[in-house]
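Side project, low priority. Logging it here so it doesn't get lost.
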Amino acid sequence: MGRRYNDYNAYLKALFGERVQKIIVDTGLGCPNRDGTIGRGGCIYCNSKGSGSGLWQRGFSITEQIEVGRKAMIRRYKARKFQAYFQSYTNTYTSCEHMKTMYDEALAAEGMVGIAVGTRPDCVDPDKIAVLASYVNDYLVWVEYGLQSVHDETLSRINRGHDFACFAKATQMTRDAGINVCAHIILGLPGEDKAMMLETARKIGDLGIDGVKLHLLYVVKGTPMETLWKAGQYQCLEQQEYVDIVCDFLALLPGNVIVQRITGDPHPDELAAPQWTLDRTATFKMIHESLEKQNLWQGKALGKTTSGWSFKK
């Protein structure tokens, strides 16, 4: 089965001529939406680790984390090139000096070809963007902004702490500096129907983003989302619903956008619902089969007559 969307692994292989493997880095940085800086108390779905590994709290330096990850990727994939992924919490929520120290340490590791920095659009400014831009000539640099939805009423409902205009401004500033922007989008947020989710696809495409990660809203234990779910005030998407939305979402994305993720990967011990998300392979397979069955590809709804990638019609 051929590809019907512009996926990240193929993009990296085209750039570097071989497999490039991401290594997750936990820096122990916080989040202004959780520590009281903007007085919000955190997004209603976020777990206590902020999607991180917790390795920093366990005493692992950036160098040590990368070395552990590098050995694992060499053993599993025979990879020789790597990208440091600053994933947990908000990795520009610190001083410019500390940002540079973190990124320099990561890039000093053997085989490192770039960085991907996860952050919030309200946690960048021209000085911080300048730090990130200083690496562009020598390394692949991506900034991954958590947006989740283009609808301000949704962002307020999930206690996000910023609006869509904030994301649009940060995206423009980042791309103007020559840095790639990836938008994180959550499908199945409270109060959103399919039409609203597809409007998110249209609007982020219009902004000229470089990449996207799609996630399902799954319910994590101990979060406000779990309280809503248990009270019957929130219903999770069914697996087929999610698959159908992803396929239509991809069809609305410009063909040059790099699709870095099409489904989430919850930790079994933290997951409250839906249980089908634990079988990521099955969901991935269903999405690809559905694209094939419907003869859909990335950008088709925008008038793109072919995918531009190798697949059988």
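Brief comment: DSSP finds ten helices and nine strands in the chain.
Revisit when time allows.
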